[in-house]
Amino acid sequence: MTAPVLRWSHVADHLHQALADAGAPLSAYVYDLEALRAHAATIAGSLPPGFELFYAIKANSDLPILQTLAPLAHGFEISSGGELAWVREHFVEVPLIFSGPGKTDAELAGALDLGVEALHVESQHELERLAWLARERGVTAPVLLRVNLAVEGLQATTLMMGGKPTPFGIAGDQLPACLAWLRAHPEIRLRGFHFHLMSHQLDADAHLRLLDAYLRQVGRWRAQYGLGTLDQVNVGGGIGVNYREPQRQFDWARFAEGLTALSARRDGLTVRFECGRYITAFCGYYAMEVIDVKHAFDRAFAVASGGTHHFRTPYAQGHSHPFRVLPVASWRYPFARPGVREARVSVVGQLCTPKDILAHDAYVDSVRAGDLVVFPYAGAYAWHISHHDFLRHPHPRHCYLPVEVADAAA
Ligand SMILES: *Cc1c(COP(=O)(O)O)cnc(C)c1O
């Protein structure tokens, strides 16, 4: 179980159908909800007692995605008032935790009014504003302090949120003052600590060592500051997806085994994960119809319908995204079909910028105008991080292939 299996034929069947009634060059996101359900169920089911999985919805907050995950995850992690309103509009009961920098008074008040389980507080000033809003309402605010921790021997990834100067969390040296302030402010209930130092973690053993360091640190703080009433530690998300070498994904099975060994360090605390990318990336596919295949100097380019305004992930992460060509037999014109065989090709979109590139010089057996190029691992930080209206091209279709298991309750 190192990586979920991609159900290519299932996705291809759907795309060929979509192509038949497209009427214009196709661009589409396809989400395999059954694959999502199976993957999330495996992850949630592999966690030992005392560990809980939250889904960080900023990775992909589409309703069918959230509906698939709600029964499997312990709850959702939200990072804005907009996400809070969106989730509460559709899920009255699901447990929520609220993270994120620069929370406004309205967002903090919304979290108190709409029953968020815990707020992850990012600074002393945020804590003071939250206490002031809680006092006004006569309620107690449940809080985890997000700490930017210096971890000895920290193995960095390509996206670091802490362990160095960043805008996130409370720097470790400010913690004593924060804790002293909290002792005089009963309107805040300190439930624990929150860490999210990195994303793109691909190494299960390194991640286990990091979690071990978090839990040891929390143990030291509990002893040092007499924090007997804590009940949780949130260890963030950050499990990566290997876009560069897709056969070598994060070894979740090994990680889950390591968690069992780590259980002794929990010391009665509940350990929460708030993963985004690793949960939803594998279920999504971005498909583009090739409009043209051309050469410039010694390079070949497939120009396809769509681009980074739909799927910014490769540009955002600086990689060449893996893809497959789905051959399409029909050809509508009475003249020659441009294409290349057994060649390297760059896949680009329709934007008027050389930055609109999704794959660089990738080997293909064949690609022709009219074929589809399909990018897997496009279910997280894909559509939702893209600049949709640059050039005002049409938005892609979004198709959700349904969950296949029978509803036991029906
Ligand atoms: C974005 C974010 C996550 C999710 O990160 P992934 O890399 O998608 O797992 C979790 N916690 C915080 C605080 C975040 O900002």
Automatic annotation (TrEMBL):
The active site is at residue 352. GO terms for biological process: lysine biosynthetic process via diaminopimelate; polyamine biosynthetic process. It comes from the Bacteria. Residues 36-281 form the Orn/DAP/Arg decarboxylase 2 N-terminal domain. The keyword Transcription regulation does not apply. It holds the Pfam family Orn_DAP_Arg_deC. Its cofactor is pyridoxal 5'-phosphate. One of its GO terms (molecular function) is diaminopimelate decarboxylase activity. Keywords: Pyridoxal phosphate. The modification N6-(pyridoxal phosphate)lysine is found at residue 58. The keyword Amino-acid biosynthesis does not apply. Residues 29-379 form the Orn/DAP/Arg decarboxylase 2 C-terminal domain. PANTHER family: DIAMINOPIMELATE DECARBOXYLASE, GROUP IV DECARBOXYLASE. Belongs to the Orn/Lys/Arg decarboxylase class-II family. This is Diaminopimelate decarboxylase.
